[in-house]
Design brief:
Number of domains: 1
Number of strands: 0
Domain Amino acid transporter transmembrane: 73-473
CATH topology: Hydantoin permease
CATH superfamily: Hydantoin permease
Pfam families: Aa_trans
Radius of gyration: 24 Å
Keywords: Membrane, Transmembrane, Transmembrane helix
Order of helices and strands: HHHHHHHHHHHHHHHH
CATH architecture: Orthogonal Bundle
Shape: globular
Helix content: 55-70%
Subcellular location: Membrane
Distance between the termini: 52 Å
CATH class: Mainly Alpha
Number of helices: 16
Membrane topology: Multi-pass membrane protein
Length: 483
């Protein structure tokens, strides 16, 4: 890991052991350096160390990993969280993404986008580890990492440290609260299709959305990431079963490749990128998961938690997207499970299991924005009332989310917009920009290749933002008839 000879912030002394805005109970960092009293008869070289040398020795001695919570999550629990955060409703939309991209272009670009997303997460976590060592704090969240990098960066950008933190925080809250609305719609629609068909009912989907709010109110009250591990593990099992059933129906007939384009019309390509980026990016969950680990050194590296999770995710996305589009063609719908035959018990089982899996995922998705929001407002309330305030706050947000879901039961174009805008910014642009600031000016590699690489990533994210947002807004204004 590269040693960072960064500036110390103007407003905060080096060696501060406070994690800005952190609400977690983290061990206190080692005390600041205190000069030792040197006996008069000690004339060896150690007594002649300069203050700068002593400070360097102190910085080298501090390890954020040694100051983490020893009762934190295991590597297996972290892997379960990452898999669950990425294997949500997005993977079910991959056949539709391939419909907007074509077989060859979709397969190749899914692998490339997966690699880019993994790389951006990697550089964000690595930068966070480095800045934790420089600031002498055990762990930092996504927004706090951006803030500290600016604080310890070149003097010209230090005044913008709070803006960097607020930008990330607001982006995370907007993205994950919107995703929570989509989760409600997906769960309700799955139960609506199965129950209405099997029982001959004609209940509106909004009735099912109202019923979905009830379990969301319960799981949304969980405030400890470690307690969500059992839900993630069960959700992963349900997803595996659902995928097995879906694969059965995908291959129950001879696949016809002849009528599927290798490259879709250019006008559809932005929707493909918006869907894939939204589906793959779990950037908001990454730092809470990494911060919760008792052995964070197992997160990066080979194989590592991150690489294992992302390789699994990318392969599953490619397989489901490619063969799902080949099987159902132009009739493919926003979720591959909606293409499964109505009334068949294996298909109904797949729809219901996936709905329950997404319900269990709701707690993890809801955790991220609430942690951000609570850090911003907790100081306004008496500590003795924090518990009741949290209960009321979470209940109110879930009820509002349910109201939005009921008011707009088809949120697919809106979520494509959110994915194009926020995930392209938070998942690609911000990590590459933060790494550039941290390494500036003389640690950007030979011929400043890291700067060139990050500029290309930034351009790609902005193109995905503009094109994806334009295509999503066009879908809202001029919705296409469902096949």
């Amino acid at each position: 890991m590269t040693d960072n000879k960064a500036y110390t912030p103007d407003t905060e002394p080096a060696g501060s052991n406070e994690v800005p805005g952190s609400s977690s109970h983290l061990p206190i960092a080692p005390p600041a350096y205190t000069a030792a009293v040197v006996p008069l008869n000690d004339f060896n070289s150690k007594a002649n160390l300069t203050e700068k040398d002593q400070l360097s020795l102190e910085e080298a001695a501090y390890s954020p990993f040694d100051n983490r919570d020893p009762n934190g999550a295991s590597a297996g629990g972290a892997l379960a969280h990452l898999l669950k955060s990425s294997l949500g409703t997005g993977i079910l939309a991959m056949p539709m993404a391939f419909h907007n991209a074509g077989l060859v272009f979709g397969a190749v670009m899914t692998l490339i986008v997966g690699f880019l997303c993994t790389h951006c997460v990697h550089i964000l976590v690595k930068t966070s580890h480095n800045i934790c060592r420089d600031a002498k704090v055990p762990a930092l969240g996504f927004a706090e990492t951006a803030e500290k990098v600016f604080e310890y960066g070149p003097k010209a950008i230090r005044p913008y440290s709070n803006f960097a933190k607020q930008f990330v925080d607001i982006g995370l809250m907007a993205t994950y609260y919107a995703a929570a609305c989509v989760y409600m719609v997906f769960i309700a629609t799955s139960f609506h299709d199965v129950i209405n068909y099997d029982l001959g009912l004609k209940w509106d989907v909004r009735i099912y959305i109202a019923m979905t709010v009830i379990p969301c109110l319960l799981i949304g009250q969980i405030r400890n990431l470690k307690w969500l591990v059992p839900f993630s593990l069960m959700a992963n099992v349900f997803i595996v079963v659902t995928f097995a059933i879906t694969l059965y129906y995908m291959f129950d007939e001879t696949l016809d490749y002849s009528d599927k384009p290798l490259l879709a019309p250019a006008a559809h390509i932005p929707l493909f990128f918006a869907t894939v980026i939204f589906a793959m990016e779990g950037i908001g969950v990454v730092m809470p998961v990494e911060n919760s680990m008792k052995k964070p050194q197992q997160f990066l590296g080979c194989p590592g938690v991150l690489n294992t999770a992302m390789i699994t995710v990318v392969l599953l996305y490619t397989v489901i997207g490619f063969f799902g589009y080949v099987r159902f063609g132009d009739k493919v719908r926003g979720s591959i499970t909606l293409n499964l035959p109505d009334g068949a018990w294996p298909a109904d089982t797949a729809k219901l299991l996936m709905a329950v899996a997404i319900l269990f995922t709701y707690g993890l998705q809801f955790y991220v924005p609430n942690e951000v929001l609570w850090r911003k407002i907790q100081h306004k309330f008496n500590p003795e009332r924090h518990n009741i305030v949290q209960i009321l706050l979470r209940t109110g947000i879930i009820l509002v989310s349910g109201g939005i879901a009921a008011g707009i039961p088809n949120l697919e174009p809106f979520i494509s917009l959110v994915g194009a805008v926020f995930f392209s910014l938070l998942g690609i642009f911000v990590p590459s920009f933060v790494e550039t600031v941290y390494l500036w000016p003389d640690r950007l590699g030979c011929c400043k290749w890291k700067l060139i690489k990050n500029i290309l990533l930034g351009v790609f994210s902005l193109l995905a933002l503009v094109a994806g947002a334009a295509a999503s807004i066009d879908e809202m204004i001029n919705p296409k008839e469902e096949n």
